[in-house]
Amino acid sequence: METKHSNGSRSYEHDIIGWFEDMSENAGQVQTETLRRILELNWGVEYLEKWFGDIDVREVDSSSLESLYTSFVPLASHADLEPYINRIADGDTAPLLTQKPIKLLSLSSGTTEGRQKYVPFTDHSARTTLQIFSLAAAYRSRVYPTREGGRILEFIYSSKQFKTKGGLTVGTATTHYYASRVYNIYICLQHSSSFQRI
């Protein structure tokens, strides 16, 4: 989504809601193109090679690619991906799940067998987290409008980060987001005061 911020103005809120509603109207097409982008960006990673072998996904049209994907790649649970995630956590830098390096791991909000699960967190994850927060704020402002130039106060949970054996930083998704470059740019664009950590 390429939308310019207007200091958190009603114009920006209208733009992001319009963008989301346009995307929702064409959800099937957006989903097909999103799958294509993901597969092209991550062509050659170990997990996808397991299913696609030597098929060059960049040479297949979007509709056929979607059919291939649904035929070849089974629904996966976290347990199916956990061996790859554990290798990443232990410091394996080979392209296992993504071509972009994974430097952060998020903790799931739920538990399995009494422990939280690791979930890879990338720069793309930070950008999509910003989109989700921005969209939620726009809809919230539509229902509970603030005066022009008014202020809001948000309390959002953030936790301490720690390192894996392989040196990756682990924390909640919101913790990673608030520590990211994307968030610092967003704060500057919104002319917000710096956040306090308790």
From TrEMBL:
* GO MF: acid-amino acid ligase activity
Report the InterPro entries cross-referenced here. GH3
One annotated Gene Ontology cellular component of this protein:
cytoplasm
The source's superkingdom equals: Eukaryota
Looking up Pfam families in the UniProt record yields: GH3
Q: What is this protein called?
A: INDOLE-3-ACETIC ACID-AMIDO SYNTHETASE GH3.10
From which source organism is this entry?
Answer: Salix purpurea
